[in-house]
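Researcher: Go.
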Amino acid sequence: MLQRWLVAIIGLPLLLLVLLACPPWATMLLVCAISGVAAYELLHVAGKNVPKVVLWGVILSAAAQCWLKYAETQTALAGTHQSYSLVSGVRWATVMLLFFAAVVTYGTERAMPFSTVAAGVVGGIVFPALYAYLILLRVDYPRADLEQAYGQIYILAPFFIAFAGDSLAMYFGMWFGKKKLTPVSPKKTWAGFWGGVLGSVLGMLLLRLIAGKWLGYHYPFTWLTFALTGAVANVFGQLGDLSMSLIKREAGVKDYSHLFLTHGGMLDRFDSTMFIAPVVYFFHWITLV
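Model: Structure:
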């Protein structure tokens, strides 16, 4: 319990410092780190006979794609024409590396199976593609005048949705949970599912209250839009949580790593966040355009 409190006491202020007090490139570096570590954890848990060059290639690919997405966004904001995407090139190189390793090692004692190729594609391409939306929430807006008064607060939305949803889901499950939700996670119940949706709605309303009433931010979004964003994003966030639990269950492990001590690893803490961030991004773009 002491370790859990220490992680929360130290980690939460650092997260807020990076997201709110630092310039956008700090958020980019944080997301690069999250994406790279998540890719490592997935290959470590779900991969088999992963050569070091492949492991490091996938890790660097995941981090590089987030950095390149940020760079491409900055180029677009500066009005510089760009007719190609380096992100697509990195993704192509990642796929080539994975299949090359599988072909070269085939028939040997250290053969890398296709399941590891698939895990590498998910960790090295899908994960950064989803996590990159955290960067876009910080810097990519239909109207440039909204960035300063909007981005530094709304980047918190995925975290409010995830943490508030998880908290209320736990209590609803304890108080009302009877019918099990899925064998993937035996402790989860339908009561917890609906509690999570409600918690995320309340979390988004709290975010708007704090930003609007106390910090003076004026949003073009209504209270209803914030609530709807929280509800829809939470459903996908719970899918993300269950998806990462499914991988752990098939691999026979409890946590992806012990990076956050008793809190588990990066994928244990930020699994639902990468499923939530794209939903939040799409909602705010649809509303602002």
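Model: Residues 91 and 157 are 28 Å apart (CA to CA).
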